[in-house]
Amino acid sequence: MDLTSYAELAVQLVNMGDELKNPFSLRALLEETGRTEAAARLTRRDIDALCELRDELAGVFASAAEGDDVDVVERLNGLLVRHPVHPQISGHDGQPWHLHLTEGGRVADALAVGSVMGLASVVTRLGVDRLGICQATPCRNAYLDTSSNRSRRYCSERCASRANVAAYRARKRGA
Ligand SMILES: [Zn+2]
Ligand SMILES: [Zn+2]
């Protein structure tokens, strides 16, 4: 169980936006991130539940970007109550014994428990300021800042270079 990869999953779910309603896109994301069993079991009901979760997770990132630590913690605590952890030791597919946060149940439940625990772990280990919203307007993608100097401000290289070009043009106009 890698909680940082679950925190990344939360980011990916938020950034999928309405594309999350497309089962093919969500299945592709799950397969790309090694969650093949979840991808195979995904149902329409899971997708509806994940769309609701997505909105809640987006709220967490929005509050974090505004520096509202108390609101972030309240939102995450609320999500932790609604998506409780039921840890089980598992050893499937020839892997060594490892912890699963929850066993059985729906795909959406497992992904919700994972992404909420992932964010809770980042917030408590690294700080609320590690969650952010891309500053290259109009992009509103979420990101996770795992850099050693907390310097991340954009969701992607693409947005970083777009913002740099815009800043350069603004300087040139100002000169
Ligand atoms: Zn496992
Ligand atoms: Zn961006």
What does this structure look like?
This protein has one domain (3-174): Jann2411-like domain (Jann2411-like fold, Orthogonal Bundle). Strands 1-2 form a two-stranded antiparallel ribbon. The protein has 175 residues and is mainly α. The model has no long low-confidence stretch (mean pLDDT 94). It starts with a helix and ends with a helix. The longest helix has 22 residues, at 44-65. The chain has helices at 3-16, 23-32, 36-41, 44-65, 69-82, 107-125, 157-174, and strands at residues 88-90, 98-100, 131-133, 142-144. It has seven helices and four strands, in the order αααααββαββα. Helix 1 (3-16) crosses helix 6 (107-125). 59% of the residues lie in helices and 7% in strands. Bound molecules: zinc ion (2 copies). Residues 90, 92, 98, 100 line the site of one zinc ion (ZN). This is Zinc finger CGNR domain-containing protein. Pfam families: ABATE, zf-CGNR. Residues 130-172 form the Zinc finger CGNR domain. InterPro entries: ABATE (IPR010852), ABATE_dom_sf (IPR023286), Znf_CGNR (IPR021005).
